[in-house]
Structure formats: C-alpha cells, structure tokens
Amino acid sequence: MKGTLLVIEDDVGIQKQLKWTFSDYNVVTAGDRTSAIAALRRYEPCVITLDLGLPQTKITQAKDLLR
After folding, report:
1. In this structure, what are the phi and psi dihedrals at residue 50, rounded to the nearest 5 degrees?
2. In angstroms, rounded to a whole number, what is the distance separating the alpha carbons of residues 17 and 62?
3. How would DSSP label each residue in 12-48?
4. Can you name the residues that pair with 49 across neighbouring β-strands?
5. pLDDT tens for each residue of 12-63
6. I need a surface site. Which of 2, 39, 54, 57 has the fewest CB within 10 A?
7. For the packed helices 33-43 and 59-66, what is the interaxial angle rounded to 10 degrees?
8. What pTM was estimated for this model as a whole?
C-alpha cells in the first residue's frame, strides 16, 4: 500500500510536477487552507509539503494547520 503525500500548493504546475515526482506515493493536492484542512482530515497523510508562500499564510497559521 502506498503512503499518502499531501501537497499544499496553489500553483497547479507545481502540483503536477510534485505529483509526477512522487509517483511512488498516493499524492493528494490542496490549493488553499480550507481544502488543505479537509484533505488532512480525510486522508491523514504520512508526508506533507507546504508552500509557505501561499496567499494569507503565515508561519503561525501553518503551524496551526498542521496541529
């Protein structure tokens, strides 16, 4: 069974590249905070990549998102 990797990234091109790069994982993508929280709850990923440059995302919000 493949582990799940959550890619939190608003750039669709980067999402696709990471999905291709991590083809050994079940890659789930989220383009904003709301969909990221939903994906975290639904898939419980073993690995998360987070774009710290997301609009309106600060380091403290990222920490809260991952708790």
Report:
1. -130, 125
2. 22
3. HHHHHHHHHHTTTSEEEEESSHHHHHHHHHHH--SEE
4. 7
5. 999 999 999 999 999 999 998 889 889 999 999 999 998 877 776 555 565 6
6. 2
7. 20
8. 0.80
Rounded Cα distance between 54 and 43, Å, is 21
Provide the token pair at 64. Answer: 């809260």
Encoded tokens for 6: 């959550």
For residue 2, pLDDT beyond 70: yes
pLDDT at 21: 95
Specify the 3-state DSSP secondary structure of 54: coil
Whole-number Å distance between alpha carbons of 62 and 3: 22
Return contacts of 56-59, CB within 8 angstroms, 24+ apart.
Answer: 57/33
- Measured CA to CA, the distance from residue 18 to residue 35 in angstroms comes to 18
